[in-house]
Design brief:
With 475 residues, this protein is an alpha/beta fold. The protein folds into 3 domains: 62 residues, Beta Barrel (OB fold (Dihydrolipoamide Acetyltransferase, E2P)), CATH 2.40.50.140; 197 residues, Rossmann fold (3-Layer(aba) Sandwich); 151 residues, OB fold (Dihydrolipoamide Acetyltransferase, E2P) (Beta Barrel), CATH 2.40.50. The chain has 11 helices and 21 strands. The strands form 4 sheets. A 7-stranded mixed sheet has the order 8-7-6-9-10-11-12. β2 and β3 form a beta hairpin. α1 runs parallel beside α11 and α3 packs antiparallel against α4. The protein starts with 7 loop residues before the first strand and ends with a strand. The model has no long low-confidence stretch (mean pLDDT 93).
Length: 475
């Protein structure tokens, strides 16, 4: 019988920060992924999962703490999973994000690349998100401290789902992701609900009055609060909404949704306005103008970049890469609610956005009209099937293509269509440099990578945005 592998490996050095947010340790030839460890740590690791080519473990004892560490600022660190790099000093987070881009283009893309430009840090590393969605639950996750208490607290929670345990929710006391009064609103809703005996949602049995709480903010003073109820109860619902309206007069849009389905998706349901406007307004500066701004209407289910100040810097970099003169025909693929298209429209002859989510296309058109923009078109449909000779006959052959696909990257048909249209420049924006590098490798015969610009949109996480400029090769 073969010798069993140990369940604990002692004094293992942690050597890198992995692309999925877990640190990388190595014991001999074994690669071990460890959450909440830092490069430079030396720790005893308890194996929790064995895969064919790697192991997963948790650190049970540290012999040496890395000099790259810093003290996490959130009491929920290590539980909610939202900011899993808090223990890394911010300058080291930026280093590993930039390294992640370089590694993917070297190991996956295997294309010639220029020196990667220094990552653009986020101007805010706390309270930078403009949208949070909390979940009500009658199954509160009990922490170690709770379990040590003689009488654990009641089961209700208002917070975030425990990673990999969907039926449990961590009761959040203070979240560092969204600016005031976000924490105060969440606390006030929780306390009012408890004081008035309102039932928190039971996900296993699909019952309970209170289901979700969505808070959206802007870089200005707009504030949207959406309460999602599990069923209609006019008296109790109105009491909570009245309490919110009176306690927080700064709310500019107070709405509610009744969702009795077995999933949390509300985009197919009516959002009912209780007080104020049915939207909030975000503004962004148009590059190379004298403080001219574009305004975006944001509704309860609208998609918008969650770090708005950093998104403005991202879009400025896209504009820089595009080198528009006012004469270009631009395609914006995976255009979402039209932020990039509407911003670039001020420097292009025409911008055509294509997006498969119909509601996002409607938002894009509305935002164009809201800003008096007349040189944009927004088309709803499957990009991989839309692009072709008929499409270019209708909207013109593009001089520049902007593409910002989801994490999975682009369908091969989209890549092929882009090369057939042969724009002089392609700007590829991605929240997943691995699939970005894969797609760019498919275009390597016809397009060279001219510039790579990482952007940190989500501090204290492993996620990194990357902007690549591709230029058409001669011949």
């Amino acid at each position: 019988m073969g010798k069993e592998s140990p369940s604990i490996y002692e004094k293992v050095p942690v050597i890198d920060a992995g692309a999925r947010g877990k640190a990388v340790a190595r014991a001999g030839d074994l690669v071990i992924f460890v959450p909440y460890a830092a490069p430079g740590d030396v720790a005893d690791l308890k194996i929790i999962r064995r895969k064919r080519s790697y192991l997963e473990a948790r650190a049970v004892h540290f012999h040496i703490y890395s000099s790259q560490r810093t003290e996490p600022f959130c009491s929920h660190f290590g539980l909610c999973g939202g900011c899993s790099w808090q223990h890394l000093a911010y300058e080291h987070q930026l280093f590993y994000k930039q390294k992640q881009v370089a590694d993917h283009f070297t190991r996956i893309g295997k294309v010639d690349i220029p020196e990667i430009e220094p990552i653009i840090p986020s101007p805010e590393t706390q309270y930078y998100r403009n949208k949070l969605e909390y979940t009500f639950s009658n199954r509160r996750w009990l922490t170690d401290d709770d379990m040590k208490a003689l009488q654990p607290p009641a089961g209700e929670a208002l917070g975030f789902h425990v990673p990999y345990v969907f039926s449990k929710v961590i009761d959040i006391q203070h979240c560092y992701l969204q600016k005031d009064p976000s924490n105060a609103i969440r606390s006030a809703v929780r306390q009012f609900a408890l004081d008035h005996g309102m039932a928190f949602y039971d996900v296993k049995n699909n019952r309970g009055l209170l289901r979700n709480l969505i808070i959206r903010t802007t870089t200005g003073d707009d504030l949207m609060v959406v309460v999602v109820f599990g069923h209609h109860d006019e008296k109790k619902s109105k009491a909570l909404l009245e309490h919110l309206a009176g306690r927080f007069p700064e709310i500019t849009s107070l709405m509610y949704v009744v969702n009795s389905k077995k999933n949390d998706v509300i985009s197919d349901l009516d959002a009912i306005l209780y007080k104020g406007r049915p939207y909030i307004i975000e503004t962004m500066k148009i590059p190379e103008t004298d403080d001219q701004v574009i305004k975006f209407k944001i509704g309860p289910v609208s998609f918008f970049q969650t770090n708005a100040r950093q998104a403005s810097r991202l879009y400025a970099k896209v504009f820089e890469f595009a080198q528009l003169t006012g004469k270009e025909n631009v395609y914006d693929l995976y255009s979402g609610t039209g932020a990039i298209a509407n911003i670039l429209s001020h420097h292009a002859a025409r911008v055509t956005g294509i997006e498969y989510v119909t509601a996002a296309v409607e938002d894009a058109r509305e935002n164009a009209a809201f800003n008096g923009i007349v040189n944009t078109d927004f088309i709803a449909g499957d990009i991989s099937r839309l692009l072709g000779e008929d499409f270019t006959a209708a909207y013109g052959r593009p001089d520049v293509i902007i593409t910002d696909p989801p994490r999975a990257g682009m369908h091969k048909r989209v890549v092929r269509s882009m090369m057939e249209m042969a724009p002089s420049r392609i700007i590829y924006i991605s929240c997943n440099p691995a699939t970005q590098a894969r797609d760019i490798a498919l275009m390597n015969d016809r397009y060279a990578v001219a510039r790579l610009q990482p952007v940190d949109m989500f501090p204290h996480t492993h996620h990194v945005e990357n902007v690549a400029l591709l230029v058409k090769r001669n011949g």
